[in-house]
Amino acid sequence: MIGKAEFLSEEDQILLCLSLKSDYAQAKLQAWVQSRQEPFSLSDAGRCLGIPPAYLERYMRIRIGRILKKFGCRRIEKRLETVRFLYLPPEKPHG
């Protein structure tokens, strides 16, 4: 069957998922971000999209970071072993 995902390479599946035009990926990531209470890493956000940390290359991290910024997340520097930056989820409005 032509439409099956198994005909796409793993890298193509990741690019498809990270596409800024992908409403599905953005909706999934936005729901995940809104449920967060604690700071999180780009690897955590990648796992939300089904991307193993080993496959997160620099250009993918940049795309995810831009999407997180669009959602209102703030990046803070926090050096923890291999993680340099963490993201704070957007503040929920009080009231």
Unreliable stretches covering 5 or more consecutive residues = 1-6
The number of strands is 2
Helix count, DSSP H or I runs of 4 or more residues: 4
- The proportion of residues in beta strands is 5-15%
Number of domains: 1
What series of H and E elements makes up the topology? HHHHEE
Helix content, binned percent: 40-55%
- Assembly context of the chains: single chain
* Structural class category: alpha+beta
The main sheet orders its strands as 1-2
Cα(first) to Cα(last) distance is: 52 Å
Radius of gyration: 14 Å
The 3D shape can be described as: globular
The profile of the biggest β sheet is: 2 strands, antiparallel
Q: What's the mean pLDDT score?
A: 79
Write a short abstract of this structure.
The protein has 95 residues and is an alpha+beta fold. The chain is built from 4 helices and 2 strands. The termini are far apart.
Structural description of this entry:
Residues 1-6 have low confidence and may be disordered. The protein is α+β, with helices and mostly antiparallel strands and 95 residues long. A two-stranded antiparallel sheet has the order 1-2. The protein is globular. It has one domain. 44% of the residues lie in helices and 14% in strands.
List the helices and strands and how they pair.
Layout: H1 10-18, H2 23-35, H3 42-48, H4 58-70, E1 74-80, E2 83-88
Question: Could you list some keywords that capture this structure?
Answer:
95 residues; two-stranded antiparallel sheet; disordered N terminus
